[in-house]
Amino acid sequence: MTRQMTLVGFMQAGNVTVYSGSWRYPSADLGFLSMDYYAHIAQVLEAAKFDCVFFDDRLAMPGVYGNSVSDAVRYGARPIKLDLTAVLGGIIGATSRIGVGATYSTTYYDPFHIARTFATLDHLSGGRAAWNVVTSVNDSEAQNFGVETHLDHDQRYDRAEEFLEAVRALWDSWEDDALIMDRESGEFADPSKVHEVDHKGDYFSVRGPLTVPRTPQGRPVILQAGSSGRGRRFAGRWADMIFTADPGLPVAQRHYAEQKEQIASEGRNPDDVKLLPMAYTVVGETEEIAREKERLFLDAYVHPHASLALLSEVLNYDFAKHDLDDVISDEMMAASGGIRGLAEGVRRHLDREVTVRDLAAHRATLLQGPRFVGTATQVADQMQEWFASGGCDGFVLAATHLPGAFEEFTRMVVPVLQERGLFRSEYPGATLRDHLGVERP
What we know:
Blueprint: E1 6-12, H1 35-47, E2 52-56, H2 70-75, H3 84-94, E3 99-105, H4 111-125, E4 129-134, H5 139-143, H6 153-171, E5 179-182, E6 187-189, E7 199-200, E8 205-206, E9 221-224, H7 229-238, E10 241-244, H8 249-265, E11 274-283, H9 287-299, H10 304-315, H11 330-335, H12 337-350, H13 356-364, E12 371-374, H14 376-388, E13 394-398, H15 404-419, H16 432-436
Parallel strand pairs: 1-2, 1-13, 2-3, 3-4, 4-9, 9-10, 10-11, 11-12, 11-13
Antiparallel strand pairs: 5-6, 7-8
Helix pairs in contact: 1-3, 3-4, 4-6, 6-7, 7-8, 10-13, 14-15
């Protein structure tokens, strides 16, 4: 069978997409507090045969900038985040094939809770559940869970490794044929096929077994987005889909080759794991129309303080102590390791010294991943170049505004990809693992 793209819709259960000006776009639907809003978007993506829709999450309002949530609230910089279990439950009821994924943190939850949540979602959806594993990154989240500062990088990944071991053991604690449900004999399940886990580690003690039987997928699908060396090793060991943020094709090609080698080194088949960069698409009936849309997104809708509120949260560094025109210094980069990598990337893009304003603009202007702009044919050409040249296995598509960005892409671009044989016209099966072509464990 010809290799085809994996396409995932990237969502937020709140007032904005990852583009913090999305709520201001004139045709944006502001019904983000209603279930109909999320159900409609999932139905649009399912009609186009997307593999999955998954939701990002953060466990705090952005409050690092100025040590306050004021600017996040004032400018709509992601002050709203709904509970994802309820949102996924509504989507499951409104769809029948598309995968449904949610982000849950290994730092602020416990293995039994996560294992039960996603096993339940997998059963209720008929085998469509996915867990996006994150370790959480900032002090605002820590302070909502009773601690002052977040764990350091290596501690978070040490905890996450043990967390995944415990969750997998819980998912495997029921054998496939443990349920008997023989009314006549009165035997409900075979106790020899339901096992205690008895996990005792540095971070967790979990007796088990799980209170949910083995799921349709065997185990729900795992997404992960680790970008550091430790994060890439973690993804290579655990992930079925790896969510990346490579801004250009040469970087993506190197990352793709290195990550596939990492997966193989873990004794896994690299073809079973999908590498998916986040991408934006801006589609127009003509290239001129698409470029004008792009100009509006870049120039019209994001306040710099909204961008800095989100950037401060991501990097756990308070940019409010600087003027917008301050040059990014060595001292600033030393204070947060993430600033260095971001600033160096922006410097290469601008070919000059980088200011705080530049970082705010970078965050606001959709430069975290590739941006495909043009007519449907032109956008399909750009996606095909990445896919065919060793840059990715598909894309996690982020929206500039909702539901319009997904509606335009599915109506205009998906048919072109299907005509070229690059994307499916029908779902191959009932489960998310079926869509991904990954065997049930």
